[in-house]
Amino acid sequence: MATEGTKFQVNFKLADGTLINIYATTSAELEAQLTTIQDTATLIGAVAGSLGSRGNAASYVANTLGAEVVSVAPSVQASTPPDGHCKHGQLVWRESKPGAPKTWKGWFCPSDKGTPDQCEPKFLR
Fold first, then answer.
1. What is the mean pLDDT of residues 24-36?
2. Within-domain flag for 80
3. What span, in angstroms and rounded, lies between the C-alpha atoms of 108 and 12?
4. Main-chain phi, psi angles of 46, to 5 degrees
5. Residue 54 reports pLDDT greater than 80
6. Interval 30-56 mean pLDDT
């Protein structure tokens, strides 16, 4: 939770609905926390991929790094796709915003939007 000295707050909503809030009093502290989380998430993803399962990054971040996990919603994705990678890296779960005129959800190429050789999305039906 933010304290009186908090000057920076960053909020992340993960694909599984987990919310992670990071608070810092200086930009250096914020940068250090973000770097640690990025390194940790990369490591968890690599190990989970090696083991054929999904790691629990939210739990690790909360317990080890002291970040606050606000809530964890039930997983909406059936499972990671069997071919959870494309030539650009690990696929990313995305879905339409609540209340959108047309709902959709699926796995997307991690390359930037508009990349000439971006892979086709794999929509969940």
1. 84
2. no
3. 18
4. -65, -45
5. no
6. 69
Residue 94 within a domain: yes
Q: Is 2 among the domain residues?
A: no
Q: Which residue has the higher pLDDT, 89 or 16?
A: 89
Strand order across the beta sheet in which 92-95 lies = 92-95, 105-108, 122-123
Provide the token pair at 44. Answer: 């968890």
**Within a domain: 22:** yes
DSSP state of 64: H
- Residue 76 contacts residue 95 (beta carbons within 8 Å): yes
CA distances from 88 to 23, 32, 79, 109, 123 (A): 32, 27, 20, 7, 18
Q: Are residues 13 and 64 in the same domain?
A: yes
* Phi/psi-derived region of residue 89, left when phi > 0, alpha when psi is between -120 and 50, beta in every other case: left
State the Cα–Cα distance between residues 38 and 41, nearest whole angstrom.
5
